[in-house]
Amino acid sequence: MRTPQSHTAPEGAQSRSSLEELRMPVRARIAAAWTTFMFLYIYVDLFNLYKPGVIDGILDGLIWRFDISSTLLTVFLVTVSIPATMVLLSMTLPARASRATNLVVASLLIPYSMFNAAGTTWEWAAFYGISIGLEVLLLAFILRSAWTWPRRTTSSTAMGTGPDSESLRKPQQA
What we know:
Shape: elongated
Number of strands: 2
Oligomer: single chain
Distance between the termini: 47 Å
Strand content: under 5%
């Protein structure tokens, strides 16, 4: 089925083959990265349950080498709540606070993510290497996006001053 072309669109091959590119706001890029990080985080934990002996250990009251307790599960809840909350904070905090929060939290989560390789065997090196590698790449993307967050210039303040005007500003390096 053929879609009718707009009467205002110029004729030619370029107008039919090019896709519209809109600049995505920094907030949306960072929130999307945190969302992706959360999905990866959850799936890695879910797939980890398929490792031989993990379910038996849980049934015996152990996770890794720790006794299952309310304290341990609270620590786990807090650790998974951090990236989940960052999705919301990245979109709702004022720009300066969002930038700082993303820089701090992503920086702290890199060594935490790498700690997940502790005690692994060569048999599971690919699983942990890929999962940790992807997590660190996402965190690096968040760090880069927050670090290079465009600054408002005096000439662009007339264009818009609200939080939604971010995509209208000319990007500048931090």
